[in-house]
Amino acid sequence: MKTLLERREAARDGRNVDPGLGTLAGEGAEQRVRRLDAGHSERRVMAPPEPELEGRPSYYGMPLLKEPVWKWFIPAYFYVGGVSGASAVLGAASDLLGPRGTRALSRRCRLTAAAGAGASAALLIADLGRPARFLNMLRVFRPTSPMNVGTWILSGFGAATAAAAGAALLPVGPGARRAGDAAAAVAGLCGLGLTGYTGVLIANTAVPLWQGTRRALPVLFSCSGAAAATALLELFPPGDRSEPVVRRFGVLANVSELVMTGVLEAEAGVVPRVARPLRTGISGALWRAGQALSLASLALTLGSRGRRSLRRAAGLCGTAGSLALRFAIYQAGRRSALDPHASFEQQRRGRGAADVVRAQPGLDRALGEKGAEPPATPTLHDPGLAHP
Amino acid sequence: MGFFTDSTLCIGCKACEVACKQWNQLPDDGFRLTGMSYDNTGHLGASTWRHVAFVERESPLPGQGSPRDGVEAGARAFEPLRPLGQAGTTSPLADDVSPSHIETPVALGPTAQAMGKFSWLMLSDVCKHCERAGCLEACPTGAIIRTEFGSVYVQPDVCNGCGYCVSACPFGVVDRRADDGRAWKCTLCYDRLEGGMVPACAKACPTASIQFGPIDELRERAAHRVEQLRARGVPQARLYGESAASQPGTAGLRAFFLLCDEPEVYNLPPDPVVPTKKIADSWWAMAAGIAGLGLAAVGVVLSARRAA
User: Fold this and answer.
1) DSSP code per residue over A66-115
2) Please, which residues 268-307 of chain B have a Cβ atom closer than 8 Å to chain A?
3) Positions of the region Disordered (chain A) (predicted)?
4) What is the ipTM of this complex?
């Protein structure tokens, strides 16, 4: 009888070619002929003509960048990770400083955080194909890779939340309970990182929209994670004296989330072509829906006056809004990657290398780059000018 | 070591594509016509590590034309260059492509007149092996390394298939293989270099458009070539990414190009930047954001305690 894992591997789902083959039989050996009607090879089609692009050069409108390969697991992970990270933060705060009678809140937060950490790991493994690949991420520590840093954060977070949740669930002695409290505090710290690093992760790509909103994204993800976590708490209220805590945290998170969506739009809108996927198409609709739902959640929370049904509705709106925002950002990023003019326009407007070279000549040295002093006067905009 | 790809010498024969596929045992991409030009490959990918771009333009390029236009084909603008470490061009025609026996221009018919305003740009594109590589810095497993030859290499036995390098490449080079989910790209024929050979594409190139050698020598050669072309009436000739000064976003490319038009025309980004170069902004923003989140949580709990 084969295990589930073995059956999955034997199914040749396209993720388990023998890694030895590359070294034994040529670099790309055993690669199957690309199926013409499958996958993203279909993307090589000419873009429909657009009047606004008249006179702007491109290579038959073909995409410059590769579309991000991530499937729905990744935006779902952004949501789950945000919820569990922010839950751990709120839980740690109420553990350390909370008023009496919020035991249920901190317990609920610990359980949400632990369950979310497990679900996050499951989503990442689903994206990679098999568990060993998750462990493979931990073979190095690489500060230049937010994905690597994030895997370390998630691992630490998972361990800490598991310990904290264990101490909350099991009948343990005072010593173990104190250890559980300490673990909850550690989980809170890791949770802070978990809510924000996903924004850094996608900002660290060549995708024009994500790179162009690199300052707003991590903050929006943190705020949105907090809003999503309180939305979940409103849906399943802990029911003790923690109500004002949840309510106030929710209002703060919701307001900051809405503000950050505006900030993100403004940051993207500096180059109109880059911001286009936030205004048009499915991604634009998702984005507006996310904002509307978030606003509805805020209004319902403020107007609920303790009415259970309204708070539930607020929780529902908040959850849906947070999910919609993440999927909108994901989808809009994919679309901006497929639009070569988004990259071209961004770079021609001095938002390629030029702005970092101009703004932070010392940055590269700080990051450890050797040699390669930036030029005194960056003349990249017209390569013809660079070589008079 | 690196590549200097001189697009003015490229004749679009695709020998580099074929040689690359053959040496590296890459499968074909299916026989499909893109319908936009002679370019049926489209872009670099997991099974395409060299790609010849065909740009059809409605503007003339000195040295290109046909005897029917009254332009002497070749016009000796593109004198062949002996590639480094290789024999001269394999074609006996290369030294004497111009049919100089046609003394008088032939009268132009309507087709020829239309063709008079036409020129081809061809470019054999490849992984740029950036001095500061976005894929290498983004790779969370350390699968992508810089080899002793200075090239950027994806170790297939370590690659996780997370796809981060795919999005981190400002040139859209790295791609995930459809059948096993790992990232693949040009290796600069690491295995051939280890054996003291030149990369398969450079070896197969019949016009020395792809030149392989020590990067400094290639830069000198390229600068000389640009001067030569400009002197012969091709003022558009320019280098792309040959040094850190001209392309600070990548600190220079190990595979750089000589172009005769804007980079966009060849589907190259005009001012590419390694994403990690900008990421400090993001980390700072995140630090501010999570500090706010932590303070909000603490503040809310404290305010509830005061109320209680």
Assistant:
1) PPP---THHHHHHHHHHHHHHHHHHHHHHHHHPPTT-HHHHHHHHHHHHH
2) 269-273, 275-283, 285-286, 288-290, 292-294, 296-298, 300-305, 307
3) 1-26, 364-388
4) 0.85
